[in-house]
Amino acid sequence: MIAWLTDPANWSGPNGIPVRLTEQIGISAVSLLVAAAIALPVGVWIGHTGRGSTIAINLANIGRAIPSLAAIGLLVPITQLIDPDLGFRVYPTLIAMVILAVPPILVNAYAGVAGVDRELVEAARGMGLRERQIVGRVEVPIALPIIGGGIRSASVQVVATATLGAIFGFGGLGRYLVDGVAQGDDGQLYGGVFLVAVLALAVEGTFALLQRLLTSPGLRRARSSAGAASA
Q: For 2-230, which CATH superfamily applies?
């Protein structure tokens, strides 16, 4: 594994580590952004209104129960009809990663907003703030650490699981695992495993740092003061 990782030939060309790493990060980032665009508004709305929470939680649990590999395999015939090239290599992995990322983001957004002190919300409402203002100025700032925790969990899951896309022709770091098994190349196989683990730990550490900053005493006081001032 060390010999493979330190071989300069593996750090250049279209199959080099920088290219595969970029592919892995790229599809993970796009999947996370799409999932956040879907789950955050829904989770915040449910947490604010209290409507549809049971349905949303059940759907999120169903999403968690679907194996990502099975999701990719089921999507391939459908997406390939739409786009014969990207429909086999890219879209199934992208959609499966979105399905994987939506549940933790949605559930945490709902839990964070629903957990905001109702007295503070009612005070803001009584002073004439509109519902959108209450969400933007009071609930979301206070719930931000919990929302960030959902995004953190989703990001690590997506980065680690996106390797499965290589089975269906996608690149990324999973390519090293698939090719390593096919070619009987243990150095490439375990080198790929090592790179995936390092990337997942790096993503976990980055989001953990951001979440820690969001939960720092100074920022908590600032958010509470902002909420109180709005109210």
A: MetI-like (1.10.3720.10)
